[in-house]
């Protein structure tokens, strides 16, 4: 069935337009005022009066069906992408992380097979390299030919078998740069994080109130500086995940002033929560790496967004139940790290960004859709409302006011880091390649609706 969306306000990264949108064969076919249905029975007319029409939201930092030490995340590819659809997300980018001693290419294929039958929205993948052997580095052009342009590295997690040291990161960057790919980093200095954590454990300071002392801002800053210098040396584009601190923003600003191509990402929880959560009775449930910082750092992140040094926002969605988090509540080093955020992504940034006049609605589109599509090679198929782009759209009603409650959400967890926060606006409809998959809080999609989307470097933001 073709669709005709009328009476809405289309939001681009560059401005707003009052216009109708005609959709057929999964693509946007016409945009203009007073469009008339080309057929009567086969065209559904959707009234978007008093609503924004946004390009489908892209979450560039998602982790589904993953493991943290001995704990498995509660959201699989079905429940996670179904929840994403309720939040207006039409594309996620998850990770295929190589296990040491294995083939990165084989891990990628395995991850695709895991996701394909379950996904309710479109998806892409980052490939995580943990073991940069010669034979693994030779797989990089093959992986890029499969439509993966981004390679994740971990500068920490030695105890989990994921850490790549500076020499390994240098080798990965040098190889990825040959093919115009992009290297991503989890930017925490492992030696410092381990030292700080072990000292606190020896002093029996293991409850959540001490957690921020186990990986302070300097842990993030040192790793960021190292990654930027390696990026400069290898001429490899760099993407820095989950930025939390003023120092990291300043390092990116300095790098950009010198012509180094660095793209910064932060997360909703760093933008709207502060480190006082760790002093709460349930503070252990907010444990994540890096930690949530203080209000000054939060202000620096919003400034970094407005000044265009932070290009994207990603949820870093890691879902665990209260039971999974509570199991190790008296020892922060054992609590599974991460919080859920897929379903609440758009509404949190709209409420605490747009409604508080920290960013414009156009900037929201840039941060939550257009820039991620450009950086990871999905643009202009994704991330923009234009003729012949995929008909991935969100009809967003900016007027409802409500309290956010875990019991009302669709993520497979009973913990919501934004519990009881007041939100403004709600997703009225989510459209994936011309198919309505969420309408008025009713799920109309299905597992397998999503497709793997190949990326191709070349367009940048």
So what's the oligomer here?
single chain
Strand content: 15-25%
Distance between the termini: 34 Å
Helix content: 25-40%
Count of DSSP-assigned helices = 13
Tally of DSSP β-strands: 21
Shape descriptor reads globular
Describe the structure.
Helix content is 29%, strand content 23%. The strands form four sheets. Strands 8-11-12-13-14-15-16-17 form an eight-stranded parallel sheet, with helices on both faces. Strands 3-2-7-18-19-20-21 form a seven-stranded mixed sheet. The protein is of the alpha/beta class and 461 residues long. It is built from 13 helices and 21 strands. A hairpin with a 2-residue loop joins strand 9 (67-68) and strand 10 (71-72). The mean pLDDT is 96. The longest helix is centred in the middle third of the chain and has 18 residues, at 217-234. Helix 5 (166-177) crosses helix 7 and helix 7 runs parallel beside helix 8 (246-257).
In short:
With 461 residues, the chain is α/β, with parallel strands linked by helices. It is 29% helix and 23% strand.
How would the blueprint of this fold be written?
Layout: E1 2-6, E2 9-11, E3 16-18, E4 20-24, E5 27-32, E6 43-47, E7 52-55, E8 57-59, E9 67-68, E10 71-72, H1 77-86, E11 89-97, H2 104-115, E12 122-128, H3 134-137, H4 140-145, E13 150-154, H5 166-177, E14 182-186, H6 190-202, H7 217-234, E15 237-240, H8 246-257, E16 262-266, H9 268-272, H10 295-306, E17 310-313, H11 322-326, H12 345-354, H13 361-375, E18 393-403, E19 422-432, E20 435-439, E21 442-443
Parallel strand pairs: 1-6, 2-7, 8-11, 11-12, 12-13, 13-14, 14-15, 15-16, 16-17
Antiparallel strand pairs: 1-4, 2-3, 4-5, 7-18, 9-10, 18-19, 19-20, 20-21
